[in-house]
């Protein structure tokens, strides 16, 4: 049977977990088999910048970090369940990708 693989990514872990819970609630209501959410490795993007851009003064640096959290959910490709999942309002900070896998 075909499965839908849902990949979620966000910089806000709370929003990501809320989206995962909404998807799981829909799967439970429709009585569809699912697996996940599987937490994927967090990606950290670091940028180091000098505090004084003109070159004067002390040589001090600041480090900025952006963390990207990811989750993976596999769900049976039930047309009705996927229709409800696509109707979930998606916050602008969350990236959702749906693929169909055999």
Largest sheet: 4 strands, antiparallel
Quickly give the structural class.
alpha+beta
Gap between N and C termini:
7 Å
CATH architecture, by name, is 2-Layer Sandwich
- Which superfamily, in CATH terms, is the homologous superfamily? Ribosomal protein S10
Return the CATH class.
Alpha Beta
- The whole-number mean of residue pLDDT values reads 91
User: What count of helical segments does DSSP give?
Assistant: 2
Q: Judging from the principal axes of the Cα atoms, what is the shape? A: elongated
In the CATH scheme, what's the topology name? Alpha-Beta Plaits
Total beta-strand segments: 4
- The portion of residues forming beta strands comes to over 45%
Q: Walk across the major sheet and give the strand order.
A: 2-3-1-4
- Summed up, the domain count is 1
What does this entry look like structurally?
The protein has 102 residues and is α+β, with helices and mostly antiparallel strands. It has a single domain (3-52, 59-101), classed as Ribosomal protein S10 (Alpha-Beta Plaits, 2-Layer Sandwich). It has two helices and four strands; from the N terminus they run E-H-E-E-H-E. A four-stranded antiparallel beta sheet has the order 2-3-1-4. Helix 1 (13-30) packs antiparallel against helix 2. The protein is elongated and about 65 Å long. The mean pLDDT is 91.
Briefly, what is this?
The protein is α+β, with helices and mostly antiparallel strands. 25% of the residues lie in helices and 48% in strands.
């Amino acid at each position: 049977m075909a499965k839908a693989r849902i990949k979620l990514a966000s910089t806000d872990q709370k929003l990501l977990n809320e989206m995962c819970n909404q998807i799981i609630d829909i799967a439970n209501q429709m009585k569809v088999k699912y697996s996940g959410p599987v937490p994927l490795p967090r990606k950290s993007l670091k940028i180091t910048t000098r505090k004084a851009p003109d070159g004067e003064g002390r040589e001090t640096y600041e480090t900025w970090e952006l963390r990207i959290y990811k989750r993976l959910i596999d769900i049976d490709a039930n047309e009705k369940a996927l229709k409800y999942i696509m109707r979930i309002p998606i916050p602008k900070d969350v990236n959702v990708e749906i693929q169909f896998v055999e």
